[in-house]
Design brief:
Layout: H1 23-30, H2 38-49, H3 54-75, E1 80-84, H4 94-101, E2 106-111, H5 114-123, E3 131-136, H6 142-149, E4 160-164, H7 176-186, E5 192-198, H8 204-217, H9 227-233, E6 238-239, E7 245-246, E8 263-269
Parallel strand pairs: 1-2, 1-4, 2-3, 4-5
Antiparallel strand pairs: 5-8, 6-8, 7-8
Helix pairs in contact: 1-2, 3-4
Bound molecules: S-adenosylmethionine.
S-adenosylmethionine binds next to helix 1, helix 3 and strand 2.
Length: 271
Amino acid sequence: EAWNSPMAEVPERTVLDTGVPHIARVYDYWLGGKDNFAADREVGDQVLATGNAVTENVRANRAFLGRAVRYLSAEAGVRQFLDIGTGLPSVDSTHEVAQLIAPESRIAYVDNDPIVLAHARALLTSHPDGATCYIHADARDTATVLAEAARVLDFDRPVAVMMVGLLHCIPDEDDPAGLVATVLDAVAPGSYLTVSQPAADIHTEVMASTAAVMRALMPQKITYRTREQVARFLDGVELLEPGLVSAPHWRPAAGADPTPRSVWAGMGIKR
Ligand code: SAM
């Protein structure tokens, strides 16, 4: 049984309405995935119509996730990952990258989209030496997230907390900085925090038009933030080089396209 999650059963409270756009599936559409519906594609197309290079933005975000996990695993030697806001199956998922480098890596995924949940079993085929679990929970319910994650992760050892493409889904009134601080409090010194989210202040005008489309069409409130606002999420950690930068500029591969994309990305260590 490759699927070794303690949460393998689908919770009964799960509801799915494919007639309403959802951020996980809109993002999947922009990435060129198959797990999206007409309502998601409508939002996706209207954003493309603003002239936003959103396809490049989401690819830059996803590539940042891959480089971040590779760095954490290969260079920092981290063997435990708490990936909040997993998303739908796509290239270079956290457990794939981490377990390719270190098969014994343990990963706890968290998402609250029922479609992500439906894919979890197929997606999360762990290496037998490691472990991968999927927690269907709202990131804001940190008590549940941390209690469930503790079933696969050892909180006395460093954990890489991944909040990649997550915090724009948490509006200011729901205290995203408090969420980050609570999770950071729970992990051992030597743990890492990785954050990315859409930038309000890179290609500012087109991001403002995009925000208007999202506000009009998405039931979930999506918040684009400035560099200064995103930097506050990393207050509790010591930023690693090169700091908080446009996603393509975070430890790029040799020869990578240096065009800035509307995504802030950074990583820090908890001392
Ligand atoms: N981390 C992946 C990546 O960067 O490629 C996926 C990013 S996708 C834009 C955001 C994900 O966060 C979606 O799968 C969405 O369902 C999830 N999400 C949004 N709000 C959430 C919440 N309050 N609790 C749990 N997951 C949430």
